[in-house]
């Protein structure tokens, strides 16, 4: 059974960089059939797609965040990572990593999510 | 950017009732529309892909329909465990976007 697990600091100071890693188990991140994505959800609000990456390193970012986002993949560790720079309180959210089917682009497996709070 | 607008935002429903949630896209997206269920304090779960295609393991009371700009998620004979927020998601064009969500409460 595929599992995804987010990890990283739960508290980040304003203007600093948020860094999260998603570890994939029970399947290979190098599969040609999937993208790997990040989605966030501010407390009490809806879902926002941040960006996705293919195992080759090709990336797709939400234009609203593109200037601050970097997503990378480490196939040797079966992990992919998110960096969001210059964070503000508006970036406080639960961050999810998810597998995304290449053909449909539906997110079919999700991590449990990790709350990141931006505060001094 | 394609905007997805769901209605209603909130619905309070009696068990065994039928629930209908709509999702309207700001431009035609064909059938590239997917539905998710998010129970409290859980991550979203894929319910329906490509507007109407069922997902293995999802109860048959969940169904989807529509194409173009108007889509519907139907829950036949609501059960208590269906209390959740429901989101639509389009993958027709980047950036991929989600609807604002519909919260279903059990009376």
Automatic annotation (TrEMBL), chain B:
Lineage top rank: taxon: Eukaryota
GO cellular component labels:
extracellular region; immunoglobulin complex; plasma membrane
> What Gene3D superfamilies does UniProt report for this protein, alphabetically?
Immunoglobulins (2.60.40.10)
> InterPro entries per the record?
Ig-like_dom, Ig-like_dom_sf, Ig-like_fold, Ig_sub, Ig_V-set, IgV_Light_Chain
Question: Could you tell me which SUPFAM superfamilies the record lists for this protein?
Answer: Immunoglobulin (SSF48726)
> Which CDD domains does this UniProt record tie to the protein?
IgV_L_kappa
Which first-to-last residue range defines the signal peptide? Answer: none
Which SMART domains would you find in this protein's record? IG, IGv
Which Gene Ontology BP terms does the record give?
adaptive immune response
Domain named Ig-like: residues: 1-88
Q: Please name one Pfam family that this protein belongs to.
A: V-set
Keywords recorded for this protein, A-Z: Adaptive immunity, Immunity, Immunoglobulin, Immunoglobulin domain
> What PANTHER family does UniProt report for this protein, alphabetically?
IMMUNOGLOBULIN LIGHT CHAIN (PTHR23267)
State whether it acts alone or in a complex, and with which partners, per the record.
Answer: Immunoglobulins are composed of two identical heavy chains and two identical light chains; disulfide-linked.
What is the protein's name according to its record? IGL c4176_light_IGKV6D-21_IGKJ1
User: Which organism encodes this protein?
Assistant: Homo sapiens
């Amino acid at each position: 059974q595929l599992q995804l697990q987010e990890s990283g600091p739960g508290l980040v100071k304003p203007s600093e960089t948020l860094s999260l890693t998603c570890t994939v188990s029970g399947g290979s991140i190098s599969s040609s059939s999937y993208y790997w994505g990040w989605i966030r959800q501010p407390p009490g609000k809806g879902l926002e797609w941040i960006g996705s990456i293919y195992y080759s390193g090709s990336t797709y970012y939400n234009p609203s965040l593109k200037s601050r986002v970097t997503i990378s993949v480490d196939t040797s560790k079966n992990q992919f990572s998110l960096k969001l720079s210059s964070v503000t309180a508006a970036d406080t959210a639960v961050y999810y990593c998810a597998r995304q089917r290449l053909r449909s682009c539906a997110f079919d497996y999700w991590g449990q999510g990790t709350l990141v709070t931006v505060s001094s | 950017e394609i905007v997805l607008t769901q209605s209603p935002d909130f619905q309070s429903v009696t068990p065994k009732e039928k629930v209908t949630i709509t999702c309207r896209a700001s431009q035609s997206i064909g059938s590239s529309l997917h539905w998710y269920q998010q129970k409290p304090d859980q991550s979203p779960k894929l319910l329906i892909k490509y507007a109407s295609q069922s997902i293995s393991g999802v109860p048959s009371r969940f169904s989807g329909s529509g194409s173009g700009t108007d889509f519907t998620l139907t829950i036949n004979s609501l059960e208590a465990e269906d209390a959740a927020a429901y989101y639509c998601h389009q993958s027709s064009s980047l950036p991929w976007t989600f609807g604002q969500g519909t919260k279903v409460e059990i009376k």
